[in-house]
Amino acid sequence: MVLRRSQLFVPGNNEHMIRKAALELKPDSVIIDLEDAVPIDGKESARKLIRELLPQLDWKGKELCVRVNDPKTPFFYADIDTVYKIDVVKCIVIPKAEFDLSFVYKATGREIEPLIETARGLLRVEDVIRSEGVTAVSYGAADFALSVGGVVKTYEQSQVLKTLVVSAARAYGVDPIDKVFFDIKDIEGFRKECVEAKSMGFIGKQVIHPSQIPVANEVFSPSEEEINWARRVVEAYEKAVREGRGAISLEGQLVDYVHYKLAKRILDFANQTDS
């Protein structure tokens, strides 16, 4: 199980920030960005930097990813070739995903995290997620709003968009990760969005500033209250099963197999965060 409570985007052309992400910060994943963070005339120098720098650093158990450029751009294949040659990179983040991406996994052997950022991508989200090698998925509100001619704020708050992404992810057993929160000064707003995302089934949050990392890690980790509830449910349900019962009342609430599975998931996740 790979923890993805927090995924930090880091510009692929900024050596200082890359070093800091590796050596000082504590996100579960680091996404080195070759797309939006790097201007067109800086793409090749950014590739050269990460080829040389990433293998030198101790990533301390963090999942190291690279966001490549849009597959429809001339930069995509050069990015893929670069990532293929960097052994420490475990995952490729693909923006504006709209079709089967299995060819990327077959060519590189790296896990894939597509970003749903266009109208066509949302309509084809199942095809995208079912691609070989996909282990996580996220989405981008700003790019999606641009794609449909809408307003960014509307799609930042869209329950429909979030529900479609998280449902498709859960249907095919991949990690749903919530989008970035742009206002880096509004930590309470960020926390609120994390709590909402967790309640909808997302397992983590993409972040763009170090101050957001500890909040995401905290919110997407099981609370003591959740862990204690899960332990009581597991103990009571397993006892009931040994006695030949399939559903019980615990503290005035019905507990059946669904609640048992939810409780087991919480405990499994809690054990992972403690390890």
TrEMBL record:
Family matches, as Pfam families: HpcH_HpaI
Keyword RNA-binding carried by entry: no
Keyword check for Ribonucleoprotein: no
Keywords, in A-Z order: Lyase, Magnesium, Metal-binding
One GO biological process term: oxaloacetate metabolic process
Cofactor(s) of this protein: Mg(2+)
InterPro entries attached to this UniProt entry: Aldolase/citrate-lyase_domain, Citrate_lyase_beta/mcl1/mcl2, Pyrv/PenolPyrv_kinase-like_dom, Pyrv_kinase-like_dom_sf
Gene Ontology molecular function: any one: lyase activity
EC number: 4.1.3.6
Domain HpcH/HpaI aldolase/citrate lyase residue range list: 5-210
Protein name: Citrate (Pro-3S)-lyase
Species of the source: Vulcanisaeta distributa (strain DSM 14429 / JCM 11212 / NBRC 100878 / IC-017)
